Structures are given as C-alpha cells and as structure tokens.
Amino acid sequence: MATASTPDRDDPPETLTRLLRAELSAVETYRGALARLDGRAAGARLRQICVDHSRAVQVLRGLLLRHGEAAPASTAGREPIAEERGGDELVATVHALRDHEARQVEAYRRALADPALTPQVKAMIRSDLLRRSEAHVPTLEAMLEAG
C-alpha cells in the first residue's frame, strides 16, 4: 500500500540545502566579480554584498546542523558572469549579479511557502536572509543607473 508523502525531517534540509547552495554560488560569483573589477569604485559595495552572502551561508549551515544534516562546503561552481566584449565590463557584471539576486529573492519566497519548514526557520528567512537579499537588488540597480 502506497503512503502519502508528508513533510518530515528530510524536507527542511532539502530546502535549506538548495538555499545554501545558492548562497555558496553567490559568494563564489561575487568573489569572481571582485577579482575582475579590482580597484573600481563599485568594489566596496560588491564586497559588502559578498559579506552578506557569506553570513547567509553561516546561518543556513547552522540551520542544517540543527536538523542533523551535513552542509555542503561548496557548489559545483559559481554563476557565470556575462562576458561582453567591447562593452562595459562593470555594467555587464552588475546586470548578471542583479539577475542572480532576483533569483535568490524568489528562492527565499518559495521557501517561505514550504509547509515543511518550521515557523522558526521561516522567521529567520523572513527577518534576515530574505530582507538582505531584497536590499541587494536596489543597490545593484543604483550601481547600474550610476553607470
């Protein structure tokens, strides 16, 4: 007899693992961007966003550990950053980073709708992780407007 799937101990770690992998990818992507844009004025803002993503990695690892799960140490690789030959490298990079941030915001919003996550985990996502990711989008958009 087949049994219905119910949210259990395996579901929250899967959701949290996906979020963690996305945050690890963001850290790797921002580090790559910072290496490419070394010395530019945008570096300080990008570095702060990278620090925010590094903090999110630590929060998500802690949540996974509380579920008794091992957290991945890295992703398969960073998000590719658009290469625009003959174009403005900063603009192309910031566009790619902004798109990545928008996807991260949507991932956190989907996680908030996951019935397997506890109210405490959802509160952490809502009050900290989602809020920070949402703040990154306008920061990157302002950088694009400034050119």
UniProtKB/TrEMBL annotation:
It comes from the Bacteria. InterPro entries: Ferritin-like. This is DUF2383 domain-containing protein. It comes from Nannocystis exedens.
